Amino acid sequence: MNHRRCATLALAAAVWGAPLAAAPAKGKAALQKTKAEAIASIERHRAELVSLSDQVWGFAETALRETRSAKVLADYAEQQGFRVERGVAGMPTAFIASYGEGRPVIGIMGEYDALPGLSQKAVPSREILAEGAPGHGCGHNLFGAASLGAAVAIKEAIAAGKLAGTIRFYGTPAEESVGGKVYMVRAGLFKDVDVALAWHPDTENRPDTQGGQAIVDMIVEFKGKTAHAAFDPWNGRSALDGLELMTHAINLMREHVKPTVRLHYVIANGGNVPNVVPEYAKLWLWVRDVERAGLEDVLARVRKAAEGAALAAGVESRITVQAGDYEMLVNQAGARLLHANLVALGPIAYTADEDKFARTLQASAGVEAKGMNTGVRSLEGQENQGGSTDVGDVSWNVPTLHVSIATAPAGVPWHAWPVVAAGGMSIGHKGMVLAAKTLATTMADLFDDAAAREAVVAEFREKTKGFTYKAYIPDSPPPLPTN
Amino acid sequence: MNHRRCATLALAAAVWGAPLAAAPAKGKAALQKTKAEAIASIERHRAELVSLSDQVWGFAETALRETRSAKVLADYAEQQGFRVERGVAGMPTAFIASYGEGRPVIGIMGEYDALPGLSQKAVPSREILAEGAPGHGCGHNLFGAASLGAAVAIKEAIAAGKLAGTIRFYGTPAEESVGGKVYMVRAGLFKDVDVALAWHPDTENRPDTQGGQAIVDMIVEFKGKTAHAAFDPWNGRSALDGLELMTHAINLMREHVKPTVRLHYVIANGGNVPNVVPEYAKLWLWVRDVERAGLEDVLARVRKAAEGAALAAGVESRITVQAGDYEMLVNQAGARLLHANLVALGPIAYTADEDKFARTLQASAGVEAKGMNTGVRSLEGQENQGGSTDVGDVSWNVPTLHVSIATAPAGVPWHAWPVVAAGGMSIGHKGMVLAAKTLATTMADLFDDAAAREAVVAEFREKTKGFTYKAYIPDSPPPLPTN
Amino acid sequence: MNHRRCATLALAAAVWGAPLAAAPAKGKAALQKTKAEAIASIERHRAELVSLSDQVWGFAETALRETRSAKVLADYAEQQGFRVERGVAGMPTAFIASYGEGRPVIGIMGEYDALPGLSQKAVPSREILAEGAPGHGCGHNLFGAASLGAAVAIKEAIAAGKLAGTIRFYGTPAEESVGGKVYMVRAGLFKDVDVALAWHPDTENRPDTQGGQAIVDMIVEFKGKTAHAAFDPWNGRSALDGLELMTHAINLMREHVKPTVRLHYVIANGGNVPNVVPEYAKLWLWVRDVERAGLEDVLARVRKAAEGAALAAGVESRITVQAGDYEMLVNQAGARLLHANLVALGPIAYTADEDKFARTLQASAGVEAKGMNTGVRSLEGQENQGGSTDVGDVSWNVPTLHVSIATAPAGVPWHAWPVVAAGGMSIGHKGMVLAAKTLATTMADLFDDAAAREAVVAEFREKTKGFTYKAYIPDSPPPLPTN
Amino acid sequence: MNHRRCATLALAAAVWGAPLAAAPAKGKAALQKTKAEAIASIERHRAELVSLSDQVWGFAETALRETRSAKVLADYAEQQGFRVERGVAGMPTAFIASYGEGRPVIGIMGEYDALPGLSQKAVPSREILAEGAPGHGCGHNLFGAASLGAAVAIKEAIAAGKLAGTIRFYGTPAEESVGGKVYMVRAGLFKDVDVALAWHPDTENRPDTQGGQAIVDMIVEFKGKTAHAAFDPWNGRSALDGLELMTHAINLMREHVKPTVRLHYVIANGGNVPNVVPEYAKLWLWVRDVERAGLEDVLARVRKAAEGAALAAGVESRITVQAGDYEMLVNQAGARLLHANLVALGPIAYTADEDKFARTLQASAGVEAKGMNTGVRSLEGQENQGGSTDVGDVSWNVPTLHVSIATAPAGVPWHAWPVVAAGGMSIGHKGMVLAAKTLATTMADLFDDAAAREAVVAEFREKTKGFTYKAYIPDSPPPLPTN
What we know:
The structure is a homotetramer. By secondary structure, chain A is α+β, with helices and mostly antiparallel strands. Chain A is built from 13 helices and 13 strands. In chain A, strand 4, helix 4 (140-159) and strand 5 (166-171) form a beta-alpha-beta unit. Chain A binds chain D through residues 3-7, 9, 213, 217, 228-231, 233, 240, 244, 247-248, 262, 264-268, 270-275, 277-278, 284-286, 288, 385-388, and chain D through 3-7, 9, 213, 217, 228-231, 233, 240, 244, 247-248, 262, 264-268, 270-275, 277-278, 284-286, 288, 385-388.
């Protein structure tokens, strides 16, 4: 979930599955053994994974500047025997690490970008580590390390001849802005993948069955004609007038869009100095809906709002879509696999200190101090909490499984210091390990159980019948950092 | 000056010419004699003119419904020997009364439409004559009678062989709305006129040297798509949204028009019932500027504001220009003739009762009770008080002279009951007689003094060089009353 | 459901109960017999009930003008032996008809007001009966007759000694505007009622388990200072400016209210003539939410929006709440009783002609021509379709059961001529009879089965614990018609 | 004229006095001799004055950072024998240089602050001297040097016993922003001054008889409550909503202020990122009118607009007046003295190269290339071109004479590179010298001719009768630069 868009604050979860109730989907002994070995692999590499996560947490590099973060992950993959291709899709911090040959090709995604201004020590009260520096307020340090850990476990199974096919780790940068995965999809890097997996740090454990929101991130620029605002304002045509008419149109439009639509904006440039009739103004606008189809309709109207506002104000407008994600295409068959494995793995046991840490964070956030969620959410009855991620774009191109794992206590604000704090200590580490195990065992299912894999793929095919993917990004390379 | 537009509230007049100082422009004895006879004619017909004025005051018929008013004036003209053509330019209450042959052709305009809801007795306090009925709140009962009286005086001079040419009285209906003269101009009825004259009731005596404002009166309609406002508002496109965006655009535009521009509107239809997303909305908008050229520029922008607002709201817009006047093209040479005659005629002498009547009106209006203005305003230093009249359109087609004569005390609100009251008694009558004499003597100049007439025409030609007239009315016949 | 607010257009209903599956809730033979006799009573009076309905349909009288409609219903009740009190709660067309003594007191409501401008013949294409006249576009002719028919059936059971207690028919006028029941509640007329019942014509058969929306209907007036819009607009303070700022505030507010809130308005007065800076402007605004609590919060903000807009425009504002309904407090125990009886009564059998009539209406509305709904909607999975009714206010004062019965084919627009047409012929009549039977049998339960009645009352008590009712109407008598 | 406010673009000047026609007001030989010697002094120091001007032009230091500029001027004054007090009124770059004793006390103001981003070489085409650096786009390098040159000439006359009294040079920083003179007035530094003088670079020679505009520069801040714009926007109250309502109110207000009022704004902060409901927004607004009285009325309404907008949006507002100037109180008696001296000094003779330079600048600005204005504008018929200066505040505290001198060709944009170019070469230098001579000879009149001085003072007293000065600045010290 990204900075621009994330909204995964877990609400009170009314319906929970019994944590130990479910049995493995298949009783096949070999597969069970492979899974047990994958779990053992992750435990064996645990210290390395924690170290990777902590390093990335310490680097705290923001979108497309994750040089060191990408390097430690890619280097580790290389050390573990993966073939690593760096700088893919035109992004220096994007990479792919592969192992094995042939089909099936199972991809697993890992993120590692931080958020600006969130520097925080791994303590349960507000203590800044480095003034003004970024911090991992969305837990992506855990995200990358866990996914890579799962990939290593599968690699070892392939190397040991227990599984056959290709495991591919996608180092996906810049989720919080830009949307690195969208560029990787466009570059064709997911083309031959049978099934892809991802997870996300959260405040509960939940195989996801809701798709969040599709989003478009756009800039609307207005260009007028300047004049002296006191001397000859009649010779001016204010770009800001155009912008204000457009925001008025947007606000009127709110009555005439479905309740699932969200429109939100800031005025990024509203003129320089009062004396001068503004010849330039800039609106930064996001549009969301739970489905891309609804979004498209609203987008078309937003475009007309810009055009009409400009016409009415005697100025010009230009819309630039600078990013955008699809809502996630949920795969129920995949969610069932994730759920079974997650339940089988059992709940995390937190120490008294960890419990106190979690409750302290909750207390400081003013929410009920009830500690960490340890149960597993049922597949039914999940509400769509909103939020957007570039995993959405992957999910419309290949069958994608997505799971959320608790790495911070319920109720604390996301994209905020408590998430940084919990993600830099053992609570985060334990969530990361559970994520790695859940992903690894589910990948074992996908490699070994052709029927299960086929069910995932068939559901995807059914749901995308007649659909053609078109990315919400400009026809240009990814924007690279200017510094 | 019309109902929609009038703004002739005389401000404190700092610069007044000495009422008796000016001598006749020409010393020619014959002309002087003709003028004296014209004045005598008006005195001779005074009772008839007062009767005509009082009848029209009593009829109090509004625009294009002035059936009886037009009839008494046209009948009187016929009785006086004029050839009368009724129902000209597609308007049953428009008529032309002519006498004489050949050039020059001098036209004189007379109005007779009343204003809705202004019924009032001829007394100096608020007393309604007939509940809800119209009243002559702009003094047009005096306007028609005075002009016709002047025409009769000239007719007698022609009949007596003192003057040669054609005198033509234009019975011009519907000044307060519609703009009857604009349709008469379009019908070519002024084509062969050498010079036209008009006057208007006022609170001071003033040969006009300011042109007022050009105006356009338009309807902007918006058409959207209805829906149930509670159940499925997302299926609706609100016409009112379009309207509100347009008014916002208009208000933003105010910063970017010259200070002489006026834009004002009311929302004539803003939806029927809240439950229904309005599929129709209607704005009634007037645009003015002191010059048509400036008006045209603003008009073009207003059209874009409507179009852009509709586009931004997802609805449709339609603009209908339903009326419009040019600003009056001032003729300075003509104003000098009017001024000389007005000064020569000397001030009106009011009785003590009339003076008391005037002061009572002023007191009730909360302004200084200083009685009637009797002086004559100088040609220089007049401020443009705004206001619009369809005489403006005539003035861009033929040289037009315009004079204002006091028929109500300074400071009382125009288009209001005090004007009705004063116009129905001797204060109004005295102003009417002075207007008739001023117009008749000035017409004598124009018939007899070729050089004076030529100066008037030459100034007009110079000022309209390269100009092409295009009326601000739809390409349709005048709107006739529906009841 | 009322004119201002109704939105009961049945959507595709995914989950239907099997029409014949359910058995009566109680097997007690006596009660079953009483029910059978009630059903027989209704069949016996069928022709009279159809006649009452058709008379009211023909009168088509709008809110608080239902003189003849109220009279035929009250007269019929009197003829049937009820004690009738007319003109209750300050409304000449409100009445109460009672029979029996002591507890329990069961009330049943009947409406009979029509909607303006909907005159239509009882034919399946648009044919106006009387130009400009009202019509029964919400089926209230059926509503009143069915409820009264049910009351008569119960009265006969009481008279026969089969049931004990008091049956009370409430003739409730002016649902479509004003909200007559709110005034009747305020007058204390429901104070001693144990349980109340109501039904409403619809396009499906559904014991209601969703409460619709609470609504407030308000007028916001702005008062400024007039001035001549061309001559001295700077001396004016436009009331319309205040109004336009308020609507802008309302539209901005849309982002910051819950998706269940609805705000909709029309501009009822937006000035008279452009020449005059408007000194008066009037907004007509409705606010709704699915719960009164949410509504109250929005209301408080709307009040500030008016106040702030006026302050910002230099004018004054005044809010008058002129009507308002609570959302309906659903009684699940009651809904189960209704469901059981409705299912037991079995589906309506339509003739081929009726079926053709229904399909013709659907075709003309552009929806799928699948004829009448005959099934019974399940209690679970009903969506809240919105819409408001003054039954809501009753439901917060006494336990209230509400059922919808199909009287028009699915998909046709409500408050429109197809509803008038179907309500004036046998499709409407059959629905009316089914409604009467459902209500009568359910009342039999309530009289006879103390446990069932107690469950209804207990649920009500539980749900209203700590709640104090305060009507959304001004502290003045009901507004009576002015003509 | 300052950066925020300047509008001295000379329009076509219809009425010009004959440059050589006027004779000295007084024939007194001694005064004439003193004037001649003052002129000679300025010629004697010419190279030094040019050097001072060029140094300040080269430093190009912006408001309150004019450290080196203030130093060279203050050092020069000290070298010339003035007593210098530096860092007055809490501003390190403000200073006062005095010479002589007793009355009369004649003050002369000099400015020296530059404008950001206007760096330009002294060549007639756009050539940047230092990228991104400031430049003297308002000619204040000439302003300071000329005024100081005039002061030195008077000092020499006092030293020589030709004049008696005190000459005081005010080094007034930060005219372009902040308004240094307002703080100097508040500190009481002008209290004992009999008459003050100032000039300004311009495109024509004009003793000023129009006062420009009073101005207030304010910040309007809105504070709301943040929330996640996709997840729970209903919990947010957008500060930007408040701001947008206020700008709407401002735009509606435009119809209801006099045509002389100007309101202009930019949106300085319109939120950070779309995902977050803005809890802070900032409007930067200037209000002007030709008279402070009118300004005060509009200010009061603007305050209510902010308050009302905040109320309507459920947020808070705060207005901070950060600067403000009075309109200049014109002194006609003083203007006559300036006019006589300016005419007597005769026109500047430009070389062919200078002429070509001026025409090249005009050509590049797209205006008629007619070279420099050399005539002297009449005192009558000057139009108020708008623009504001902190000299205005001085003028309401002591009688103030103000003259404009051509230092750039007519028609080129002010606050732009052509002004920088012309002010750094001989065209600017010649204007500076003429300004110095005009000011010196006029000061000679004021020292020597008690009647002339008394006329100036008497006019001031008459015009300020009953007036109490209150500065438009916060009750805090001047804002000092942060870097």
